[in-house]
Amino acid sequence: MSQTSLLRHGHLTSSTNHLNESKNHNRLILACNLPEEVLRKILITCAQLSVGAKDPTWSWVNVSYVCSNWRRVALASQDLWRYIDFSHPRWYTLTSTRAKMSAAHIIATVGDNNIRQLHRTLRLAHRIQDIHLKSSIQDIHPLLEILTHPNPALESLIVDVHIPQNLGYVDAYDPPSFPTTGPPLTNLRYLELHNTPFYLLTSRCTFLTSFHLHDLPLTERPSLRYFLFMLEQLTKLQYLTLDRAFPINIDGDEGRGIERPIHFPDLKCISLVGSVPEVTNTLECITFPPSACLVAKICTLVDLKKHAWRLTETFSAHAWGTDAIGVPLETLVLTGQVSGSRFRQGFEADPGFRQSLRIRAFRADWEGGGAALDLTVAPEEEDGNSDEGLITALVATCKALSLMKIHTLALQDVDIVTQKTWTALLRTLPSLRVLDITGRAPSGLVWALLLNAKSHGQGLKGDGETQRLLVPRLNDIYLHSVDCSSGGFMVSPKQSTPVNSHCDLDDSPFLDVLIASLSHRKKFGLCTRSLSIARCVNVLCSVVGDARAAVKYLICDLRNLMKKEEVDPRFPARYSSCWDGQDLGGSGFRHYHRLRTLIDSDN
């Protein structure tokens, strides 16, 4: 597209105009002298980009006219002309003729300008290797019967239908008036359906290795038994995606009446997007090897607390993170994401505020790559206080995993987990050696470490757990781009109120609390080996001096150091990540300096 723009503005000279002059001119331009292998990849990539192009009249064939060299390479690339162009009858005739008897690639956005050509090609083409169609709900109907009975040579089928939200629950598709049975499609390996009728998955698709079902309309959702019956025929399946595409009664008790779950012996990855009941019920009906990866997204917090125990049981039953395959989990990554600010002016909740939490657990030297478990909790609608929901999901997930051999905990923009919850989570990480923190400061984590160290030093009487030091093997701490003056939430004292009290704020800077915890741990011979402070802001020179005494090795970026005189004594901590930089001076918020109070009580 950029090359055709150069041609249009006269920076390149077309090979059809002034032949000798154009050759001399284009010979000096690097784009006209690219290696043939690179040009072929560019041309094929352009042909593949025709789906979803902003200009429906744009044709990849135009790119072949950039210069004589590009045209020569295009004409010599037989694979290129297998991408039949449906953007205009002229280009359709040209590309379909040049494709000859080769296996065709059908990539198009269905519309009035090409529906007849598509219908004719899908029915009469000698061989079709793959089909990728984008369409509106009105335009896809004439092609449904052909897509249900595709070319026997077909290897990949992607159908992406757009259904306007204002249609609601109307019947988008009529029941099929044609049979869906037939001989097996032995070459079909990949099937991806968006907003399509469920009957496009037929009993002929038994050789599928990848099946991805997205946004199944409610009127098209089958019963659980029929849904499992169809999936059970996919015995060679390796990748399965169910994105808001579950049976109509997956939330009911029918799943518990299933005699046995279906098994996918070759499954490598399963991806689920839905509510907690939909995800858990689906996993209860499916079994697969413990080496398979789970990618899940919970898109609503409704009933999360009620079904959290089922989430824990389901994850535990599938042995994610256990040593069943001899490769334990070694790294746990928690990533938070926030859009908008928590409050408008004053203490009025902002309905546009959204936040999510992603939990990833990685095995050691896993040949498959990626996370063994990748769970995202991202409510898409306002479900009340989301802090409690995200923390509930985190606790349920960590209970289900075997974290005894986790040596690295990476936190990216995670600041909502309370001190009490961190204390419980850190007890499940006895082998933790590396703590990597990026973005928003986890105030609850450092307070859990500090109060645990003080409790251990005071020798409090209790059940033994109170005095046991958390993460006794912690060696290295890395801070990246952290606001070291960040304050934290105060934990709400009542169960009926939200987990985090947004009116009561801690004015203890994050780095001060961290250094205090490391200093207390050093008294018991647990001296942290290294502390790295890189690209962090609001780091006090005096605190850096305290850090040198608390750890063996300190690596600090000296560019952002501050003097104590530059800090507002009234509000030494900052809360910009939660209040979008609002001035809290006269807003009625209550501030506490917990660290100062703790130090004064010791003295």
UniProtKB/TrEMBL annotation:
Residues 32-86 form the F-box domain. Gene3D superfamilies: 1.20.1280.50. It comes from Hebeloma cylindrosporum. Coiled coil: none annotated. Pfam families: F-box-like. It comes from the Eukaryota. This is F-box domain-containing protein. InterPro entries: F-box-like_dom_sf, F-box_dom.
